[in-house]
Amino acid sequence: MNRLLILFAHPALHKSRVHRQLIRAADGLSGVTLHDLYEEYPTLAIDVAREQTLLLGHDTIIFQHPFYWYSCPAMIKEWLDLVLEHGFAYGNDGVALHGKTLLSVISTGGPEENYQATGAQRFTIRQFLAPFEQTANLCGMEFLVPFVVHGTHQLTSPQIASHVADYRKVLIGLRDGVFDKEAASQYSRLNANLHSVLPSAFHSL
Amino acid sequence: MSEDVLQHALVYFLAAVLSVPVAKRMGLGSVLGYLIAGVLIGPYVLRLTTQESGHVMHFAEFGVVMMLFLVGLELRPALLWELRSSILGMGGLQVVGTTFAVAGVGMFFGFDWKIALAVGMILAMSSTAIVLQSLNEKGLLKTQGGQACFSVLLFQDIAVIPILALLPLLATRGSGGASAEPVTGIHALPGYLQAGLVFLAVGGIILAGRFLLRPFFRYIAETNLREVFTATTLLLVVGITLVMEKVGLSAALGTFLAGVVLAESEYRHQLEADIEPFKGLLLGLFFISVGAGINFSLLTTHGSIIVGVVLGLVLLKLLVLLAVGQLFGLQRDQNALFGLALAQGGEFAFVLLAFATDNRVLPASISDVLVVSVAISMAITPILLIINERVVQPKLAKTINERSEDEIDEHDNPVILAGFGRVGHVVGRLLRYSGVGTTVLDFDADQVETFRQFGIKSFYGDASREDMLRAAGVAKAKLLVIAIDDEEKSLQIVDLVQREFPNLEILARATSLEHLFDLRARGVKRIYRETFASALEMGVDALRFCGFRATQAHRAAHLFRQGEEQAMDKMMALRNDDSAYLSEARQHLENLQNVLRHDMQAQRVPDENWDIQDLIREVTEKTHPESKAEGTGTVSGG
pTM of this prediction? Predict the structure, then answer.
């Protein structure tokens, strides 16, 4: 069984429509740790030793956050700057994260079609996430196709609920090691076609 | 003979040990406990003491002297200077006003004007011992009303000197009869010499306190012998007392001055710690002897007269005091405290009555009745203060706002805030600003009135009382914020809540390290040292002025704070088991020593975040400098 660590960052959760629901996907799942960074470190004073211990205790690291200015909220950046120290995460002796998996779970206000060369945003999500991908690479981690919820401004409650259900399936699949990473890599986002990346038993969940 | 002394000591100690805790637990305060103990062992109930209680009282009056020394230690010269107008103004008006009021009533009842005036001066005095001890115990000494009481009492102490000089002039049956004690000390001298001696004594104490005592105490402290330091402190107090008595001044005034002079010295806490137990015991003894000295046989023969005198005395003094308080702008609740606290005769009255009888100013028949009346009025004082607390103050709060009683039943705010002083009001305002319903409990009727005008649900009351908390809606609240500055009360509230409302979360303000530990020992998790956060902010700015970058200074404070929390854990473990028996001042010193010791041993934790020394070392050691470590997405390129 894989242990999953969700590093969750939302500076104004009380105003959130999507993430407040999404984090409930982890409710009651054994092997999944939800770590609410803005709740833990309201002043951005991150406890590095504690975070590193948490990393060592998990196999899959998930960054879950809204996609602010084509990137993460400040907390995640601060977390990266502080926690992924030389000698721990990278460098000659920095092998603590080798073999672990990294996943981004993000939401965007704009619709999916905007995120392409011909769209309003001119780049794909995957291109925007290049810093994360390379961070994973430098730290010897496997980078997964991101789980993306698009068009959050126009989502209806049932649509949000179905994203939550998908997220929960992904979490369980990753935890139980039945997730077909190979198949997922063909898509631009992890949740584009869950039927083809999760075993059939999941479809009825 | 020594056996006799020990037997007496046994009786007094036993009486105190048995009665005071009971009285305290019943909410009557220690003073009333001692007084009741005195009545019980006195010649009219158990007859365990003889008529010698008068001698005991005289000896025990030394406790009052010590108390004023302690009061002086708490009062820096600057603070005393600030109080000058209330000491002279309120004190002067009270003494003069009461003197003439009493004299007028006396003349109305047909007494000679000389006798009436003498009695007026004598009864103008209030009891420093009972008032200060009671107010201190209730934590009211620092309130506006408490300060006013203190000012008046201080003036009375000073006024004793001229009164002693004036009384012989009022002698009715020939000046200074044969049986009178020879006039001694200062009063035998001509006026200008008297004044000179007073200045010499007072000036001597101030100068010696300023320039001699500190080096002397340092010399003694360096011996590291605790008891020698104690002996030196006692020597100082006894010495001043004797000198003052020799020149005919009030000993209490002398030691008070010495205390004020020493208030700014580094030995203040040590001096307090040393004198405190003696003061407590002697004052207790004093109160017991007042109780034992009440002449109940006189009460049976002159009962109605004495009751009349006591009632008249208390009422008259109360009226004069209320008028004085009103004139000096005391708020209504504070004025009530001021009036009720000081409406009694004082221990000086005993001295002055004896002096007046000896000088043939008063016939023994009058002074005997007055001695009993004054003693009873002193015994009534703690009861008056209880009435003030339980009846008068809530009434005042209620008349300020009639709706208080109905409203208190129905609100169900999630937060109850006990105390709306300098800490509580910030918490309360933030909650209000954020739209969180808060119910405020405070002990200051005028403040409560103000809060109400601004729509804050606030109630006058004591949060350490279960009925009060229930009425404030504790059953529906989620959170109790204890923001009062009375440590004992705060702990009482915690005990009460943990016993009766175990599900209520507590956020507690800690006013001292000792208080912090007391709260921790009770399992309170969320404790806030009232000055720590702002002191830390100040430190951060100090660092910035010393060239630190803002974030660097901020992080240093962050690390320091973490270290502090670990230090508190360690100190909690080290905590002296006997702490309950150490005086507050002593405990404060010990805690400070522990903190400083910890600081010396603790290594400063370097801020390792954003540190690239390792990275640079690795890169320079590399034979191939263009390898991956350079220019990664991590902290680099600084």
Answer: 0.52
